[in-house]
Structure formats: C-alpha cells, structure tokens
Amino acid sequence: MHFIKRTGEYNLDNILLRLLGGMILLVTVLALVQLLLLTFFPKFNLPELPKLDLQTNFGRLLTITLGAVLGCFVGLTSVSSGSIFALMLIGFFRLAARKLVGTDISHAGNFTTVYSPWSSQPGNS
Question: Where are the bilayer-spanning segments (predicted)?
C-alpha cells in the first residue's frame, strides 16, 4: 500500500474503498447463503470445521496462516475485526462464549494500546 501511495499511479482511497465494499459484500453473501441453506434445507448439515491442534506443527502453521489472512483483511478494510476473529475462535478452537467475550475485550485493549500512541502523532488520523 505504501508503494502504491508513493508512486501515485493509483488512487489509494479508491482501492481501499473497493476493498471495504468487497469485504462487506463477501460477509453479507456468505451469511445469506448460510441462512438460505438452513431455511430451505433444514436437514442439510454444513461441514464441521477441523479443530486445530496447536501441539502439532501443521496446526500451528494453519493457525498462523489463518491469523495472517484474516489480519490482512481486517487491516485493509477495518471491517468487523472482533466478529471475524471470534468466528475463527469458535469454529477452529471450539472456544466457549464466556471465554470469547474476554478474548474480544483483550483484543480490543491490545489494539487500542498499540494504535493510540501512533494515531496521536501529528498528521495521522
């Protein structure tokens, strides 16, 4: 993104706006497809996500990859970071809702702590 902004060949605002719109559209379409499947085909079972085992190298690699991909989407679009990561924790780690609330609050606290000093600098908004 820095390279695109520096070269000036593309309008960075338009790129980010399209990424934001695409991410919102993707989440909406996936939710609609799931709703339609469950409404019109109640006996249809959606496939269960695999449980990631952090004790194996494959589980660790998959966890890092999922975090990087979702982090990239959230970083580029700032769309529903808590919701996306909460769904990942529920789906892949079978985390209970009580633990998830604490995790979401912890994530928000970490994000605010890291972002606030940078954002308070002149020229950053």
Answer: 15-41, 61-90
